Amino acid sequence: MTHNKEAELTTAIILYAVRCLAEGDQVALRTMKFGPNELEALRELTLADLYRIETLQTHCLSIELNRHVFWPTIEQLKQQRQSEEIQQALITADAPMEMMRALYGMSAREYTQWRRTLTIAPSVGRPAELEESDNHKLWYAWEAMTEGDDEPSVSGEDYLQLYRDIDLPMRAIWILTQRWCEFGGLLIANDGSVPPAE
Question: 146 near 126, Cβ under 8 Å?
Fold first, then answer.
């Protein structure tokens, strides 16, 4: 059977209307201008009828673009796409599960699936402690990023930029910055010292 775009459009709309009818969504049906006679015709459709729609060369629809809905929808899709790209980049950089849960509400199952999809090897054990110089480098970068924030609110994108800027392990970045947030921003180096003021 030959398929055409008109038949595919009609099939999709008729199936949508049948679902609205089954779910009692009268608002959607009225918006599409289905009246009592059309609803009765929908009730009488058989599976074979739906199959036969694919032979039609025309459609019975009047379609127009609602720009007030279209552009917010496009923007929402763009934001979701960007968020997913950032999440994938974070996981590729070996972001720990606790980080992804805190920033994105990601479950352990989702996290594991993403790591498998991105072919990231499992992490074993705690990350090695940073050298004191790296500890200080992270501290100053973190301080510059959160300057003036009593309770820093750092996004996944911010963490990704921090990771790219200072080139330190993501797990170490997460652990230390969370520790600093918890203890009020004091940097405790490996030897227990606080870096001198610049």
Answer: no
